[in-house]
Amino acid sequence: MAKSIVVKGDSVRGTDTHQVSGTLENGTTPYAGLGKYAYRGSITEGLSDFVRINGVPVALVTSGSTLDAGQTAPGPPPGGHAGPAGSDFVPAAPKPLATSLSILDAPLGGGTPGAGAGSGLLTIGGVKVLLDKDVIDTCSGLPTPGESKVSAEQQSLVACSQ
User: Fold this and answer.
1) In tens digits, what is the pLDDT along the chain, a chain of 162 residues?
2) Which end of the chain is more exposed for a tag (fewer CB within 10 A), N or C?
């Protein structure tokens, strides 16, 4: 099955888990735990200097993603990657006060292709080319594989058969 090749600006979507702190809903008791955050970014870094598709640089397994503008804004309303926007907190009870939460992990926003990403067939200068639906390990504060994927949206001219 053919997959489209990823280029600069293609979106990266998924979920990260981050360490958070704040207070409980009573407003006085400290809270520390983990929360899930939406990752909304795009491929922006480490692109091919040599190959372009329709004038746009091709993404490689050495490329990276960054969060889209406004994603870390505390609000109101908060960006999807800001403390108050979290969900699925652990511990879940007692419940944290969302507006008090801050993400402790730093730096926020970066993502790199996962271990199995890239074409097994197509390379540029010996480096694998990223393909549609490749896994991106985004800025999770835990040493776990990412839950994000890249979507080839910026071009529909070139595909790679695995």
Assistant:
1) 688 999 999 999 999 999 999 999 888 899 999 999 999 999 999 999 999 999 999 999 999 999 999 998 887 788 889 999 999 999 998 999 999 999 998 788 899 999 999 998 899 999 999 999 999 999 887 777 778 999 998 877 776 665
2) N
Alpha carbon 124 to chain centroid, angstroms: 24
Q: For residue 68, what is the DSSP state?
A: P
Quote the CA–CA distance of 91 and 85 in Å, as a whole number. Answer: 16
The values of phi and psi at residue 30, to 5°, are -65, 150
Phi, psi of 150 (to 5 degrees): -95, 145
Q: Provide the residue type at 53 as one letter.
A: I
The C-alpha torsion from 17 through 18 and 24 to 29, rounded to 10°, is 140
Instruction: Give me the half-sphere count of Cα atoms (radius 13 Å) on the Cβ side of residue 132.
Output: 16
Q: How many CB atoms lie within 10 A of CB 27?
A: 10
Q: Which helix (H) or strand (E) holds 113?
A: strand 112-113
DSSP-based helix, strand, coil % in the chain, nearest 5? 5, 45, 50
Q: Which residue has the tokens 């695995």?
A: 162
